[in-house]
Amino acid sequence: MSQFIVGLTGGIGCGKTTVTKLFANLGVQHVDADVIARNLVQPGTKCLAAITAKFGQSILQADGSLNRAALRQLVFTDSAAKAWLEQLLHPAIRQQLLTELASCNSAYALLVAPLLLENNLQPYCQRILVIDLPESLQISRTLARDQVSEQQVAAIMAAQLPRQQRLAQANDIIHNHSNLEALVPQVQALHQRYLQLAAKGNSG
Ligand code: ATP
What we know:
Rossmann fold; binds adenosine-5'-triphosphate
């Protein structure tokens, strides 16, 4: 079991997936809060049954899977619905995160979560690693990757911490305003540092 956990976070489109792959190339395992959240609401799960009981069958697609866009729209406009959904999902996500982190056996492991700071997952982490880039670039990369409007990206960013508040909580920062090649030496340097810290069993 990895005792040393690095929380990797950053806003939409900042490069979490890209950076996680670079750490994986170095043998570092990770747990992804978004993947866990998605798996928890697959057809046949207790959570999806509770969501359907609460919001009705109209929250499902024709094939019985969750209509994520409809749910996202609902919680954007209804704060009580958002609170209800969070009290259902957050404890289940935390429990699964801990279970999966416990089965990681690399020298240290990454807990990857876009809302790591917003959802107060810091207590599970020895270090907080923030991926940072100008907001304009965050928007243009997200628009190039996803079929979404600029307004949708802006709405998602508005529900995430502003750049400076996220940076204020960082122990370490990866700067992702340049090309992909520029990420590699930053990841390698942090990897060496985390190996040392993990071996010493402290957070620096
Ligand atoms: P989300 O939280 O929205 O899932 P993310 O933080 O995981 O996003 P990525 O998917 O890794 O972000 O990156 C967003 C997009 O930007 C991807 O299409 C990725 O290929 C691209 N990208 C990431 N870093 C760079 C870079 N340095 N140069 C060019 N493109 C990049």
